[in-house]
Amino acid sequence: MWVWANVLCLLYGAFTLLLPDLHHNKTSYIDALIALSFMVIVAFSCAALLLRIVMFCATYGGQPLTLPRLKWPWLLAIGNGVGVAAIIFMLCFTKFGGSTHAILLHFTLIGIGLGAWLISILRGQTFLAGLAIGLIALTLYSATYPSKIQRSANDAAQGSTYCIYLNEQRRFSGQASDLTFLTFDKSDWQAHAILVIQGPDGPRYGNWSYRQGKFMVPWDLWTPQPTLRCPAAH
C-alpha cells in the first residue's frame, strides 16, 4: 500500500512541477498530450491505491474477511470504471482551465473512451465498459457547455451586444472552444469569466457562476466592477 502511495506522490510531483503552462497559445499539442497522459496515469494510480486500501481494510490478522457475494458484480465493476473516468475528467478540468487545446483534449478523451469500449467488448472487461461510458458521457457534457454559456449570455443581454472576457487568459472569447466545461476559465476565484453587455448608458457586467450555472447580472461580487468594453470588431 505504501509503495502505491509513494508512486502516486512521485507522479503528482511530476504532474505539477514538470508539465508546461497550458494557458497560452504557444503551448504545443505535444505538451498538452503529455499533460493528458500524466492525468490518465495519475487517475489509474489513484484507483490502484484505493483498491489496495480497501483490500488492506478487508483483512484481519492476515486473514481475509468473508465478504458477502454481490448479486450483480458487473454493476460494481461498471461503477468503478465510471469512478476512474470521473477522476481523469476532474484532473483535466483543473489542469486545462484556460487552455487553447479544447479540440485535442475532447477528441483524445473520446478516443480513450472508444478504445476502452472496444477492449471491453473483445476481452469482456466490464470495468473498461464503465470507464468508456463515464469518459464519453462527461466529455460530451463538456462539449455542450458552450451552448449553456451562450444561452445565459443571450438571456442576460436581452438583444444587446455582448462579449465574454476570459479572466484567466486575459482576452475576449472568440470561439466556442473557449467555453467548454474543461477549458473554460476556473482559477480566478474573483470572476471566472466576465460578461460585458454594451448599452446606451454604458456597459453592464456579470460574472460567471459555476454553482448557479449562469452569468450573475448585475455584478454580485464584493470586488469592484471591471471597466472592460467589448472590442470594436467583436
Compile the SSE list and pairings:
Layout: H1 2-17, H2 29-57, E1 59-60, E2 63-64, H3 73-95, H4 102-123, H5 126-157, E3 162-166, E4 171-172, E5 193-197, E6 204-209, E7 214-216
Antiparallel strand pairs: 1-2, 3-4, 3-5, 5-6, 6-7
Helix pairs in contact: 1-2, 2-3, 3-5, 4-5
Structure explained in plain terms:
The chain has 234 residues and is an alpha+beta fold. The chain folds into two domains: 2-60 and 72-145, no CATH class; 153-216, no CATH class. The protein is built from five helices and seven strands; from the N terminus they run ααββαααβββββ. The chain has helices at residues 2-17, 29-57, 73-95, 102-123, 126-157, and strands at 59-60, 63-64, 162-166, 171-172, 193-197, 204-209, 214-216. The chain has a five-stranded antiparallel β-sheet with strand order 4-3-5-6-7, with helices on one face. Strands 1-2 form a two-stranded antiparallel sheet. The chain starts with a helix and ends in an 18-residue tail after the last strand.
Structural class: alpha+beta
Distance between the termini: 55 Å
Helix content, binned percent: 40-55%
Figure out the total of helices: 5
Indicate the mean pLDDT. Answer: 76
Count of discrete domains: 2
Task: Give a quick account of the main beta sheet: strands, pairing sense, barrel closure.
Answer: 5 strands, antiparallel
Shape: elongated
Strand order of the largest sheet: 4-3-5-6-7
Tell me the Rg in angstroms. Answer: 22 Å
Strand content: 5-15%
Sequence of secondary-structure elements: HHEEHHHEEEEE
Total strands:
7
Low-confidence stretches are 20-27
